[in-house]
Structure formats: C-alpha cells, structure tokens
Amino acid sequence: MRARVVAFAAGVAAFAAAPAAAQLQPEEQAIVATVEDGFESDVALLEKITLINSGSHNHAGVKAVADALIPEFEALGFTTEWIDQSANGRAGHLFARHEGAAGTTKMLLIGHLDTVFEPDSPFTGFVREGDTAVGPGTLDDKGGIVVIIAALRAMKQAGTLDDANIVVALTGDEEDAGEPLEAARKDLVEAGKWSDVALGFEGLSIRDGKDMGVIARRSSGGWTLTTSARSGHSSGIFSEYAGYGAIYEMARILDTFRRELAEEDLTYNVGFMAGGTPAHLSEDGLSATTSGKTNIIPSTAVARGDLRALTQEQNERVAEKMRAIVADHLPGTEAQIAIEFRYPPMAPTDGNHALLDKLNLINADLGREAMQPYPPSLRGAADISFVAPYTDGLAGMGPAGTGSHAEGETIELRSIIRQAQRTAILMSRLSQERPDD
C-alpha cells in the first residue's frame, strides 16, 4: 500500500479538488455527541495520568501510567500487552490490540507514556483554569493518549469499533529512546509493517489560528566532529611546518557546512564545541572540556550537532557531502566525522496526502475548515517516523496547546473534543474499506 514519495509542494492544494462530502451518517452523529458528552471524564483521566510522573528514566512511573490505562482499553474490548524494555535501559511499551473484520484497513495508533520531566523536576501537578490546563506532559503526550481513548470510546458506543482492526502502540521512551535503537523500536516497526494506516497522536499543529494536517516530519540524527593538529608555539601558526591548528580546521569545516549544505527542509545545528590543548568530549557526549594558552597552537577540537532532513535520500546525500567537506583538510590538520541516523524521516507521500483528503471530507461534514499540510520544517521527529517507510500516515492527531518540553506546558482542553471526533470518524470510515481489493 506504500505510495511513492512526492514533492511536498505538489500536494498542498490536492484536497481542493476532492469531491463534495456527504452528510454525517447516524453512527457518526452519535460519535460527535458521545465525545462531547465524555469531555469531563476525559479531562479527569488526563489529570489522573498527568499526576503520575513518567519521565523517560522513571521506569516505575512509566509503568504506573500504563497500569492506569490498561483498564480503559480492556473495557473497550482490547487485549493489552506490557512489553518490557529493561534490557534496553527503559521501562517498556504498552500495546493494545483490537481484532475486527478480516480484510479491512489495519490501523496503528501511536502515542507515548513518557515525558521529559523526571522526578526531580520542579514542574509538577495539574492546574485547570476553565478550558486550559497546565501540567507536565498534558500536551506531549498524555493529552494525545486521552484523544485516542476518547475516540475509541465513541466508536464503541456508536457500534463502529466492532469491525475495526486496531493496534495502539504507546511507547515508554519516545523522549529518550532506549539503546540499541533497533531493539527499542522493534515492536513498533513490526506493527507498522502490519498496518495499512498509522496515526500519530502528538500535538495538533496550528498556524495562523488554523488547524493543520501533518503529512511529513523530518528525521533526527546527530554528528560528532573531531579535529586534530600538531601543537607548538603560536608564532609558527600557518607555517608549512606547524600548519593551521585544530580550531581553524574546525572553523573551516563548520563554516563550509553553513555555506554549502543549505537546501530546503534541511538543518544541521551545531549544539556545542570546544577546542584547545587538549579538548575532551565527555563520556555521555553531552559536554566537552578544554584548556590551553594563547601562545600554543591547539591540538584538538570537538563539536556535536544534529542533522534533520525530509527524506532518507536527502539524509544520505547530505551526509556524504559532509564527509567530503571534512576530508578536505587544512595543512597540518586531520579531521573525522561520525554521523548517526536515529529517527528516520516521515516523507510526504501520495498516500499521506490521500489520508489528509479523507480527513478533510470529515472536516467538511463537521462544518470545519479544510486542514492544509503543515510545513515539515516546523516539526521535530516522532515515533511515527519509524513506521513511515511501511505505511501511510498522518501525525499531529493529538490536542492543541503550547510549551511542550518546558515548564508551563499547557493544553487547550476542548481541542480533545475536535481531535477525538475527527479521529473516531476517520477510523470508522477506514474500518469499512478493504485496501487490498
């Protein structure tokens, strides 16, 4: 079912030509009402799981959130499985499965149990003021989990869940994935290969006050650059016998990156650097130390940064260009770069565009505006990217809010309603399709 990759701009107006939408069916009208009626119960569930600290390294807390959710899924007829990840340095993942009619669309719903806020974080609690609430993970991604449950509950009430083939994958380490990454994401990738459609429930993208559709997300990788040179008295700098020193070689490489790598949807940030005699990268790779004197040519320099691209082809092509730039040394210097691809890209495809078209038919039936594709350069990587090579997908199906990953993270509570209604109707319609026919 995988559709070919297309240029992002090609599909921006694709849904403009979509056929006129039909009216909501009676069961879809029931979904709309059920989600609305369940709003306060959904907020109560959000508060309950927000008050459980589930920083990625708080294994007991991540498991406690899963334990709080298991009864919610089982009440809807799902079988649940806790997939232990202690061998990979993390708590585990919660998978919930529902078997429906044979041959119909297989749907994968993706969210995560963990947050960036560890137990020692001063940002705690759940504070509601009207239709907003502040708390760690309310938006990213406990609010997304609540959207999933609200949508499934509405489908159950309306009778559209019976035929639906669904796997819900709630990872316990999205904010800081376990190692090795292949093992940490093995179960998710297998679910992606099983599915026909994947929906990612991180936060809703909004631009100029309008809800947007996420059909693409960029990759997230990293690089480590090390330069070395002969040290000596600074009076010899630039000479044939002394060369240019490690810092000038580092500066040459980074500035050449800046000048020669620029292209659409690509970024390559330098997170930190250090140079001197010597410079050392810390064991965890998150800091560096150095020392030196102004009259000594520096012997070493280190820098680390990230690399984000829209397609795997762009990833690999840019990485080769980076390696070529690094290899063109200044006299008297050496340099090495190590590039690691971690989160793959979710490239824009015909299939992803077609899913957004279907969602926009639902928006029309609900009396809402069509959702334009959100620029992928404005979103980070996510777990849905791991399944993007195998299935069509939409991301950004979670609630709206502000301040993800920061103290004061806020959710717009009533956005749970519109996202759950969209999701439930979309899944209900997909559950009646037979993608292999």
TrEMBL record:
User: Which parts of the chain are coiled coil?
Assistant: none
Which SUPFAM superfamilies does the record match to this protein?
Answer: Bacterial exopeptidase dimerisation domain, Zn-dependent exopeptidases
- InterPro entries attached to this UniProt entry: Bact_exopeptidase_dim_dom, Peptidase_M20, Peptidase_M20_dimer, Peptidase_M20A
* Keyword Metal-binding belongs to the record: yes
**Keywords, in A-Z order:** Hydrolase, Metal-binding, Signal
What does UniProt give as the signal peptide span? 1-22
Keyword flag Signal? yes
Residues annotated as domain Peptidase M20 dimerisation: 215-333
Q: Which domain of life is it from?
A: Bacteria
The cross-references to PANTHER family, in alphabetical order and at most eight, read: ACETYLORNITHINE DEACETYLASE (PTHR43808), ARGE_DAPE-RELATED DEACYLASE (PTHR43808:SF32)
Record's protein name: M20/M25/M40 family metallo-hydrolase
